[in-house]
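Re: [ENG-882] Designed sequences occasionally contain unexpected residues at chain ends

Forwarding the minimal case from QA. Structure tokens:
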């Protein structure tokens, strides 16, 4: 080994050790989080609470996948909800028409989503800023219109009727509410852990470089188009997982799952929680669902209340809640070290 190679090995050694340590820490946190969530049915008999966590699992996967595009790559998608709806409809149709085991339908849905996302992404990621945003919205409206017009296959505006078959597999019976709850929590934790590893990998830092200066990244030899397409497909897969969880929860799929308002809710969730911290979208998901559930009990004008909340975060905090908290703690820590 030359002196240069030896010096490089000494430099990279601590970096690799630190990355491995962070990976083990993330896995440990994920296991603890799953244990806490899985214990809830033993601690409480509230079906409403379990339903709330299932909904958080579906929307949390969707919102966090959107943040891979918005927060890490600088790609603001107004049509990301099409993959949420695509996952719900593909999974539901496969189970209704083919009657295959649930794991097979799950994998088949991800494969369908990957192919469609690759085709759409190959077109969209060549565009910049506002053009990218509106072309993704156009594709979402195309998919939504297809769902409405192909009534003989998708059920049209009535959605998929007749329920989604839930045959037991590996001792798991998703027709049982507790089994469905634990499976939803497992998919949430696995999805978040996978996205966390993507965000902290060299590929994740490549995405940050593209977000900050795509021209410089290209000059350094990075294939910007390929990196954007890759993260577009990955984000679509995780959004599709969220759609499948929602389809299992409601035992069906509805056109609203692929409507533009779903994408709007995803943007709103990221605004609430923050895009510069990994768990920001999860915090935003919990806040949005709590707001929806609470406000609708007291007034039918919940849209006005949500609008006020948006203005507060946009004009008051000017960042998401978790971003604000992280910045505040960092400021306090720096102030303490400076004394």
């Amino acid at each position: 080994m030359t002196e240069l190679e030896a010096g490089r090995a000494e430099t990279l050694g601590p970096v690799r050790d630190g990355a491995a340590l962070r990976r083990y820490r993330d896995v440990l946190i994920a296991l603890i989080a799953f244990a806490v969530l899985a214990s809830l049915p033993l601690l409480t008999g509230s079906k409403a609470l379990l339903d709330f966590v299932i909904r958080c699992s579906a929307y949390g996967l969707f919102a966090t996948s959107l943040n891979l595009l918005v927060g890490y790559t600088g790609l603001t998608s107004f049509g990301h909800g099409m993959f949420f709806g695509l996952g719900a409809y593909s999974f539901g149709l496969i189970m209704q028409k083919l009657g295959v085991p649930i794991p097979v339908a799950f994998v088949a849905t991800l494969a369908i989503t990957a192919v469609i996302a690759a085709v759409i992404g190959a077109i969209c990621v060549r565009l910049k800023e506002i053009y990218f945003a509106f072309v993704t919205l156009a594709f979402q409206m195309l998919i939504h219109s297809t769902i409405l017009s192909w009534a003989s296959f998708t059920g049209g505006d009535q959605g998929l009727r007749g329920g989604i078959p839930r045959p037991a597999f590996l001792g798991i019976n998703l027709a049982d509410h507790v089994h469905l709850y634990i499976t939803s929590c497992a998919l949430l934790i696995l999805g978040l852990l996978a996205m966390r590893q993507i965000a902290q990998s060299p590929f994740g830092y490549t995405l940050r470089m593209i977000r900050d200066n795509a021209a410089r990244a290209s000059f350094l030899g990075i294939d910007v188009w390929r990196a954007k397409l890759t993260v577009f497909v990955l984000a679509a897969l995780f959004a599709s997982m969220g759609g499948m969880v929602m389809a299992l929860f409601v035992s069906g799929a509805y056109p609203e799952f692929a409507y533009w308002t779903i994408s709007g809710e995803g943007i709103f969730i990221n605004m609430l929680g923050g895009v510069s911290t990994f768990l920001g979208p999860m915090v935003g998901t919990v806040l949005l669902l709590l707001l929806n559930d609470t406000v609708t009990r007291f007034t039918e004008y919940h849209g006005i209340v949500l609008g006020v909340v948006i203005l507060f975060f946009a004009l008051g905090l000017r960042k998401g809640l978790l971003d604000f908290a992280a910045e505040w703690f960092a400021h306090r820590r720096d102030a303490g070290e400076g004394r």
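QA comment: On inspection the terminal residues look reasonable. Residues 3-43 form the longest helix (41 residues). Proposing we downgrade this to a documentation issue.
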